[in-house]
Amino acid sequence: MEESPFSFLSNLTALSLLEKFQNETQQSSEFLTEFIGAIDWTQPWLVGLMAFHGTCALLIILARRHAFSVLLPLFAVLFILCAPASYINEWAAENYKLFATEQYFDSSGMFISLVYSLPMMINAILILVFMLLEITSMVVTVKRAELRHRQRKTAASQTADSSTDQPKESKKKR
Question: The pTM is what?
Answer without folding.
Answer: 0.70
